[in-house]
Amino acid sequence: MRARMAIASAGVACDLREVVLRDKPAEMLAASPKGTVPIIVEADGNVIHESLDIADWALAQNDPEHWLVPPDGNMAGMTALIQRADGPFKSALDRYKYANRYDGVDTHEQRDLGLAFLSDINTRLADQPNLFGTRPCLADIAIFPFVRQFANTDRAWFDQLDLPHLQSWLAMHLESARFTSVMAKYPQWKTGDAAQTFPPDAA
Questions:
Q1: Residue 79: exposed, middle, or buried by beta-carbon count in 10 A (0-12, 13-18, 19+)?
Q2: Homologous superfamily of the 2-66+184-202 domain (CATH)
Q3: pLDDT tens profile 60-112
Q4: Domain boundary assignment for the chain
């Protein structure tokens, strides 16, 4: 989702091929034997694998909403916060959400590790609507999809937490036009199918 949001914000036209991971097309595996999504295959054959790298690739071409230039702070600060989300928080999230994939995991311990990060975010949002000031930036777009996953793992428990600023921030981004637009469903792409243009308004 964060890769698609960055591409949509940048207005960079791409050929979208929606894949189902249990039925990966040969063309995808030929381009990227890792078999993970998302990936971008550039015209020269260069492959970009990670969602943040794809976001950087798109926003380097065009950043009309100034996601790379936060109103407060700087790129170094955004990078540091994103690294915390992608590192320790994502590790705790995976072990909380998919405990059956890990041996000897204490689900509540992992949930508490994730909650510590969310508490820091809640404090950060106490006097500003977004992580680095008055408008969204790359950090918001990079982090809120993981917070969404954490919240949806046990929504009743999450909703009763005393984290009002975090919960309002999450709701704002989930209800945003940008997120709503990239959540549109696309049919599975198979060999021989035409690709779809993404974002649709770039067609």
A1: middle
A2: Glutaredoxin (3.40.30.10)
A3: 999 999 999 999 999 999 999 999 999 999 999 999 999 999 999 999 999 99
A4: 2-66+184-202, 75-179
Topology of domain 75-179, per CATH? Glutathione S-transferase Yfyf (Class Pi); Chain A, domain 2 (1.20.1050)
Q: Which of 108, 124, 114 is nearest to 149 (CA)?
A: 114
With contact defined as beta carbons under 8 Å apart, do 50 and 2 qualify?
A: no
Q: What is the pLDDT of residue 163?
A: 98
pTM of the model: 0.92
Asked whether this chain's domains 2-66+184-202 and 75-179 adopt the same fold, the reply is: no
Residue 129 structure tokens: 């609507």
- Distance (Å) of CA 98 to CA 41, 104, 137, 161, 196: 30, 12, 29, 21, 32
| pLDDT tens digit sequence for 108-146 | 999 999 999 999 999 999 999 999 999 999 999 999 999
What gap in Å lies between CA 140 and CA 50, rounded to an integer? 17
Element (H, E) at 146: helix 138-153
